[in-house]
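Work Package 3 committed the consortium to producing structural models of liganded targets before the mid-term review. Because experimental data for this complex are still outstanding, the team generated a predictive model from sequence and the ligand definition alone, so that downstream docking and mutagenesis planning could proceed in parallel. The input record is reproduced below exactly as it was submitted to the modelling pipeline, together with the SMILES string for flavin-adenine dinucleotide.
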Amino acid sequence: MGTTSSPTTVEDALKALSNGARVINGGTDVMVPVNEGRDWVDSWLNLRNVESLRVIEQSHDGIRIGAGVTFAKIETSLVHLAPALARAASTVGSRQIRNVATIGGNVATASPAGDSILPLLTYDAEVELVSLRGTRSVPLTQFLVGPKRTSREPDELLSAITIRDFQGAQHFAKVGTRNAMVISICSICARLDRERGIARVAAGSVAPTPLLIHSAEEALLRQNAAAEFSRLVVEASSPISDHRASAEYRRHALGVLAERVHRLLWQETQ
Ligand SMILES: Cc1cc2nc3c(=O)[nH]c(=O)nc-3n(C[C@H](O)[C@H](O)[C@H](O)COP(=O)(O)OP(=O)(O)OC[C@H]3O[C@@H](n4cnc5c(N)ncnc54)[C@H](O)[C@@H]3O)c2cc1C
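The resulting structure, written out as tokens with the ligand in place, is given here.
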């Protein structure tokens, strides 16, 4: 299994990272290939004891969610402030998975199916990265560069995700082969802030990365445009066929979800 370092501060974690250790938090992604014998890790950097990464802070500037915050905490703590994120968190895996799986692990894995990534995209989230060289923030859209690929440098830790614009009605929905413990076949999150004229929509498992679909925003801002909105969302997608579903089924399911969230958001904001 190799050696494990379990620092209690970010500074000590960064020192261990500079020695080439592999980061582990909940372990629910990184341990899968290791357990199956497809991956071997000589040196682990366990972040679970770094308390400063496990806090949610709210200020006049927004909400800063530490990378080590679990989905169990998000689904209860953010249910009123960021309901789509809380909802997405509540659909991850099972209770046992949510008790250890972290938002930082989900974002760092950068799976096209990463559930928390969709609401974060609709909130225009920023990813905070820290290294011994300093701290930088990048928009989540620029952090995700390909399937399971990010713009994180090897000496950087993901320290937090910051959201500032999370107001308005919002919905997250996903389709899977059953209700729990499956990676989604397709997923959607949409946010409508009618007062400020802001609309966002993001889709998952239908492109190499979770997708923020600007071309459908204007149709989300119009009440009787659910069908048009659905068409635009599907047009922006580029799903593949795999063992979970065909590309055709993914497009169909995404269209159904899109039309449904459009109607729901408008019903709620009447
Ligand atoms: C049974 C099962 C069901 C699942 N269901 C879902 C689901 O429904 N939806 C979903 O989206 N995901 C699901 N997952 C995937 C997984 O649970 C999530 O992606 C989870 O958020 C990963 O978090 P973690 O803390 O366990 O990450 P880890 O496995 O510890 O790490 C994941 C990756 O991120 C890196 N990493 C972690 N933290 C940091 C950091 N702070 N800085 C830099 N790099 C970091 C690690 O090196 C690794 O590459 C499931 C997994 C399992 C095993």
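Reviewers should note the following from the model. Residues 1-51 form a domain with the Uridine Diphospho-n-acetylenolpyruvylglucosamine Reductase; domain 2 fold (CATH 3.30.43). These observations will guide the Year 2 experiments.
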